[in-house]
Write a structure and sequence with these properties.
The complex is a heterodimer.
Chain A (H helix, E strand, L loop, with lengths): L1 E3 L8 E3 L7 E8 L7 E8 L2 H19 L6 E6 L2 E6 L10 H11 L3
Antiparallel strand pairs in A: 1-2, 3-4, 3-5, 5-6
Helix pairs in contact in A: 1-2
Chain B lengths: L1 H13 L4 H5 L11 E5 L5 E6 L7 E6 L2 E5 L2 H13 L1 H4 L21 E5 L5 E6 L10 E6 L2 E5 L2 H20 L3 H5 L4
Parallel strand pairs in B: 1-8, 4-5
Antiparallel strand pairs in B: 2-3, 3-4, 6-7, 7-8
Helix pairs in contact in B: 3-5
The chains are: A alpha+beta, B alpha/beta.
């Protein structure tokens, strides 16, 4: 969740994690030639990292089910943090699921 | 041992070995896996298209101290589209950060040379300024092996313009790489 700072950094957003408060995550997709986002899956996890992992897993499953059409714009929202993902393609023309899965480990440091 | 060899033969017969998957394997020796580039202010960009109309056609895109080589319009377009989608997050960056050091341009000052191919995955996420008081909010956009950390909207728009120009230049001069690929 976000709060705003006081003092010298007044008005700037800070992310705070409160122990014992679960973090919500949402996986949405913006299909091609569509104007609005479609919600695919949602959930709650204990930490922001676990929530991002769960959302990435759901994204891999969705992209795998869609096949070559799965290269769409996906939005992962953890608490108020937004990540926009446009998957790449392998040389076989399929969605690069390994690259999506790699996001979990890259993101764990944030 | 025999079971292992039989499975590897099976996979070779059924599917072509994936070049992207091979690139992810741990190499013998050392390899640079990723580079983080922080950009702020108006970033000078330069485009050099060489061997136009031949299979060796190559576009050199120099952005600050990074030189990106592109061969196909497909790659450039995928990156440009990914950057364009990040505008939702770029809106919450500050318009400009006072420059601490001017970026120099030219072929002799290039820091990194990257060869981009295929259709890369573009991810954009806003890293909030919560680590230290002086660590500003940045927009993280990994493109292939380069992780761009965009500090202000000036840098965002100048890089978006560069990627779009690269896509336009390569689309105007298609090679057989582009003819093979289908519309994405």
């Amino acid at each position: 969740m976000w709060i705003t700072r006081g003092g010298r950094w007044r008005g700037r957003l800070v992310r705070v994690t409160i122990a014992g408060v679960d973090q919500p995550w949402t996986l949405t997709v913006l299909p091609r030639r569509a104007e609005n986002l479609i919600e695919l899956e949602t959930g709650w996890e204990a930490t922001a990292e676990a929530a991002f992992d769960a959302a990435t897993e759901a994204l891999v499953a969705c992209a795998a089910a869609l096949g070559a059409v799965g290269r769409q714009e996906y939005w992962i929202t953890v608490a108020d943090d937004l990540t926009i993902i446009t998957p790449g393609l392998t040389s076989g023309g399929l969605v690069d699921l390994v690259a999506i899965n790699d996001l979990r480990y890259q993101h764990s440091s944030y | 041992m025999t079971a292992h060899t039989s499975t590897s033969q099976q996979t070779e017969n059924t599917t072509q070995p994936d070049r992207a998957a091979q690139a992810r394997m741990i190499p013998a020796g050392s390899a640079v896996m990723s580079v983080v580039v922080r950009v702020a202010g108006i970033v000078p960009a330069r485009l050099d298209l060489t061997h136009v109309g031949t299979p060796e056609q190559q576009l050199g895109l120099s952005v600050g101290t990074v030189l990106v080589y592109l061969r196909s319009a497909l790659t450039a377009r995928a990156v440009a589209q990914g950057w364009g989608k990040a505008v939702v997050q770029a809106r919450s960056l500050s318009p400009a950060i006072a420059g601490r050091r001017p970026l120099v341009m030219g072929p002799s000052t290039v820091g990194v040379i990257v060869q981009l191919a295929g259709t890369p995955q573009i991810v954009s996420s806003l890293v909030p300024a919560h680590r230290g008081p002086d660590a500003a909010q940045v927009l993280r956009i990994p493109v292939g092996p380069v992780v761009w950390e965009v500090c202000d909207t000036n840098a965002y728009t100048s890089l978006l313009r560069a990627w779009r120009q690269a896509a336009r230049l390569l689309e105007g001069n298609p090679t057989e790489f582009d003819d093979e690929e289908k519309e994405i």
